[in-house]
Amino acid sequence: xxxxxxxxxxxxxxxxxxxxxxxxxxxxxxxxxxxxxxxxxxxxxxxxxxxxxxxxxxxxxxxxxxxxxxxxxxxxxxxxxxxxxxxxxxxxxxxxxxxxxxxxxxxxxxxxxxxxxxxxxxxxxxxxxxxxxxxxxxxxxxxxxxxxxxxxxxxxxxxxxxxxxxxxxxxxxxxxxxxxxxxxxxxxxxxxxxxxxxxxxxxxxxxxxxxxxxxxxxxxxxxxxxxxxxxxxxxxxxxxxxxxxxxxxxxxxxxxxxxxxxxxxxxxxxxxxxxxxxxxxxxxxxxxxxxxxxxxxxxxxxxxxxxxxxxxxxxxxxxxxxxxxxxxxxxxxxxxxxxxxxxxxxxxxxxxxxxxxxxxxxx
Length: 363
Fold this sequence. Notes:
Layout (H helix, E strand, L loop, with lengths): L3 H8 L9 H8 L10 E4 L8 H8 L1 H4 L3 E5 L18 E5 L14 E5 L9 H9 L2 E4 L6 H10 L3 E7 L9 H5 L4 E2 L7 E5 L15 E5 L1 E5 L23 E2 L2 E5 L13 E4 L12 E6 H4 L6 E2 L2 E2 L4 E7 L2 E2 L9 E2 L5 E2 L26
């Protein structure tokens, strides 16, 4: 399976996945307006080899940053794939170019030593977190729940890499539902190549030397981006035959996000890929089939189907009422017509990859 790389690393508690610079550039170009005058923290990186440090230090003036901080866990060696076996780690701070050559020279970078190991959960690292305005990094996938919980506790803005499996976590999905966290623009094709010393055992054919391919990775953020406010263009019409109700839940089943009917305002179960198109002004997230269907997984005609996200259309910018409770309009022949919002919807890209025109890589 395509996720063998991720599973193998998680089972061995190995999280050294280094993101390619091109992937960082392709995502962060959509957030440039958020960084002006801000202190950025990259707290899951070796600052001397991290592409996150590279991106922010070389674009410090263009972004208008106030300060850049990067921390290192149990590592003082320049070896990219260190063994994290040094109990004292370092952190760097950078205030921008001082000699006008637009290059972060070594003498312009402040080097500081931790008393401890540089773990993001340590009190030393927490003090740096408090100082930061925005956190940008690729945290350990195995600690994603804990990492996000810390960001929420201290009220931080962030753009971080995570696996789409995190969407199912009981600690993460409520944040998505409450619009406290959402998906960024993503990796091309929903997969990424990370610089890593682990064996690439993915079944996909596009292997790259010195890297592993991990499918289903995403960027997670709580910074506002244009994508989040683009309406999904709907063109399908509702019918009982094409959109059957679940055997064990009062909602219709929608097999593809692009097949969401334009004239239905009741509860719908949609694939998890819907989150890539989610606009909170157009839809309301009610829950998931796993967490909110009291009778278990969704069934249609006695057949179990994949997990669904339960959503409902919004009407005129407010919460919609079930379709049966809506006022209906009738044509001359007496057939019911469901009211549509009296607004022009902007064009939205149907293909997630069209959001990222350039080719991608990792950290």
